[in-house]
Design goal:
Elements lengths: L7 H18 L3 E7 L13 E7 L5 H17 L7 E7 H4 L17 H9 L4 E4 L12 H16 L5 H17 L6 H11 L4 H11 L5 H26 L3
Parallel strand pairs: 2-3
Antiparallel strand pairs: 1-2, 1-4
């Protein structure tokens, strides 16, 4: 997807975000790269905006405060997407390594780093600012990718209160292990899983409708009722996919 093809609400948030960053971090800013569902043409309605901000040097405490205020301003002036920015602030030197980098805004690691690198390397990104990311986002090994997928599974186990999200992500993880390809959207993976596992198609289709904001009350209840059972099913499919062919 090209930047010009993004919906206007997404472009408005991105423009304001990059403009605000330029004012806050100035010459520290190396690049801003958007990835995730927004860059997949088959992703459906865009519900959040995923980005990596690459910095030349660390943030100061004042800059962290100013960035937090920038997020608050975006949430206020560009609802609802302005409040759905998922951003990692990463040092340039750290971004060239395969190990998960630490977020400069708050002390958490990007445990999805290998997946993010795979998406960027496959061209599933948009440069919102700065050069194309040819010197950063290294090639991830399958071992690193597997570890990131395992982290996602543990995250899902702890967040089954969001059943549609969890079910579609589990479809994506099954596909990723089975096909050795992580550069796919949740929507694609859900449709793929409906064909592969027709006994689960009603549950997955209900999750897709919820994800696309077209769910009926019955569509909303079904993923909630079946989330734990689908998790058990998915864990077994993942286990089987790990077995060397």
């Amino acid at each position: 997807m090209k930047y010009s093809e993004l919906p206007s609400p997404v472009k408005n948030v991105c423009k304001a975000f990059v403009g605000g960053l330029k004012e806050v971090v100035r010459t520290k800013l190396y690049g801003v790269y958007m990835h995730g569902a927004a860059v997949f043409p088959d992703s459906g309605p865009i519900q959040d905006i995923d980005c990596h901000v690459i910095l030349k040097t660390p943030l100061s405490e004042q800059e962290r405060t100013d960035i937090t205020q920038l997020f608050q301003s975006l949430s206020q002036h560009f609802p609802p997407l302005g409040g759905e920015l998922d951003v990692f602030f990463i040092l340039f030197d750290d971004a060239r390594k395969t190990s998960p980098p630490t977020n400069q805004l708050r002390p958490i690691r990007d445990e999805w780093w290998a997946l993010h690198c795979a998406h960027i390397r496959a061209g599933r990104y948009l440069s919102l600012y700065g050069p194309e990311p040819t010197e950063i986002f290294p090639v991830a090994s399958w071992q690193d990718i597997s570890a990131a997928l395992d982290y996602e599974v543990e995250y899902i186990k702890a967040n089954l209160k969001y059943p549609a999200y969890c079910i579609l992500n589990l479809c994506r993880i099954i596909y990723s292990f089975q096909e050795r390809n992580v550069v796919v959207s949740k929507r694609f993976s859900g449709n793929w899983a409906c064909e592969q596992f027709p006994e689960w198609a009603p549950v997955i289709k209900a999750a897709l409708r919820y994800y696309e904001h077209t769910a009926t009350p019955d569509n909303q209840r079904l993923p909630q009722a079946e989330a734990e059972s689908f998790l058990t099913f998915a864990l077994e499919r993942i286990r089987e996919a790990r077995i060397p062919l």
